[in-house]
Amino acid sequence: MYRADKLSLLQVTILCSSTMIGAGILTIPRSSANSGFPDGWIIVLIQGVIFAFIAFLIGWIAEKNAPDTIFDSNTKGAGAFFGTIFNLIMIAYLLAIVGFEARVLGEFVQFFLLQSTPMTVIVMLFLLVAIYHLKSGIFPVVKIVTYVYPFTMLIYIGLMLFSMRIFDFDYLRPVMALELKDFGKLFSQTFIQFTGFEIILIVVPLIYKDKWSKAKWAAAIGVGITSLVYSLTLFVVIGSMTVGETMLLTWPTVSLIQTLELEGVFIERFDIFLLTLWTCQQFICMLGFFQFAIKGCHTVFKTTNLTRLLWLLFLVTSALSLFPKNINEVFYFSNLLGYSMFAILAIPFTTFLLLIIRKKWGGRSA
């Protein structure tokens, strides 16, 4: 499944940023507004610095463990039993993200396009199409990301800047007039949107060997780009709609774009660009996590029957995506995934320390 192809640093940067953005640009305004403060655009920049540093560290760990992926390193560092437990936790985390991404995609498409279509049908169709693509491996997925991501960002940033015509600075005031406890509340509402950069732990062995030492910078830059996009989104959406209105909308970013109209031109509604490109972006984001979950399953279960594995994972991700009963439970699910990210990030640091101890004491790493 993993051919001799290799990834460039640019592709890794785009992949890290793309897997993070996913549903984030549509949901982060509501998450931030739930805190009741308009300072989310500043908090996201601070979080970007923090998570870029964390991405740099785990990229450095992945570089030291290369050509092993995190799944191989877990077994070598923690032993067969605990390493397998770590791997199963990571696989479960990746599959949960796939289920969440598929459900958000289904909610979005049903809300704006297919109101009468059952959620089960929409979600399963997207997952079936994903299975068809996943048979080709990770490299075609990365190539699709590389092509779609620049167009998505260019058009999205253009729409955000165009929305400045109804922007009001008063909606962002007062600036940083919050206490320490309020800062913590706002911080916790937005950090969950940074899930995704941890895929660098799996990607490094797929990079050209002479570029391994720069992979950590690619991950950090990917986080930095994403934080800038998030900050722009919060700045424009809340600055155009107020905190009170934003927290009442399910998809505030799309609602803002829908208010933009130019009469007398060929295209009067600009939300069609966002709906189309974001659907592609979200689907590709889901593909990336799905592919890495498959890689973990291959490592743990040593399976050679890819078709059977894909159908099994299809059933698992379908169940996970359809488990939330409504959109509020979907957002609660995303909160759980955000907090789970810290447990996942603890695994590579733990494994790396165990590998150092084993090496220093002359113990075997398997």
From TrEMBL:
Main localization is membrane
Which InterPro entries does the entry mention?
A: Spore_GerAB
Q: Which UniProt keywords apply?
A: Germination, Membrane, Transmembrane, Transmembrane helix, Transport
- Any one Gene Ontology cellular component term annotated for this protein: membrane
* Subcellular location per the Swiss-Prot or TrEMBL entry: Membrane
Which family is annotated? Answer: Belongs to the amino acid-polyamine-organocation (APC) superfamily. Spore germination protein (SGP) (TC 2.A.3.9) family.
State the source organism's domain of life: Bacteria
User: Which GO BP terms, alphabetically?
Assistant: spore germination
Its transmembrane ranges are 7-28, 40-61, 81-100, 112-132, 144-166, 186-208, 220-243, 272-294, 306-324, 336-357
Coiled-coil ranges (or none):
none
Q: Which organism is it from?
A: Bacillus pumilus (Bacillus mesentericus)
Name used for this protein in its record: Spore gernimation protein
Membrane topology term: Multi-pass membrane protein
